[in-house]
Amino acid sequence: MSKNVDQRAADSALTNEPADRATDFTMGKSGDVTHVTIVGETSALMRSFGTRDPDFLFGLIHQVANAGAKGPYPDELGIKFMLAFIKSWEPRDEIDAALLAQMAATHVAAMRAANRLAHAESLQERDSAERTYNKLTRTFTIQVEALQRYRANREEKVVMQHVPVSDGRHAIVANAIGSARETAPKKPVRITPVLADARQSPREILGEPRHAPFPPRRRRKG
Prior knowledge:
Layout: H1 7-12, E1 24-30, E2 33-39, H2 43-48, H3 54-65, H4 76-88, H5 94-118, H6 123-161, H7 169-183
Helix pairs in contact: 4-5, 5-6
């Protein structure tokens, strides 16, 4: 795989700079290994894959190219489909791109199993293709959920890191609220006295302040 990437391409990745030329691919095969050469500007392509690292870009494209169907010639249509699948989800980092590459490979394998299922000529072939198809489609669903969870956690972190703070008061208030919740002493629970039987002696209520007993009232002599 050719690596005609200059420092300018790496620095301009993940920015809004337009690509100088359209990016295309040339493919060849040596034995069972598919080789892909990128023709054109690579900065826009790195932005599409959510990376600034050209080594990650070339490595991922090589892995995607060799995850397709076997044969004497490269599966250009399948490889370009998987690359377009990754770019269409607009990955923002390398984890995004890797998860999308796995999803693309799983989808292609599931469609291959669906083709085998549709053309099965025996019950054994049908059962094998059906089991493979069901496993791959369930795996694809799990991968989609994993991607959504990862993106949701990342968005939450980004929101917390980009809270506008003018003079520090917002951050101080947030910390004060967090510490108040953790260190605030618990208030004593007031126990409402229950009406007792008049024949029983009064009992002391815990937590209540003690009062001096009232002197008995004297009857006036008539």
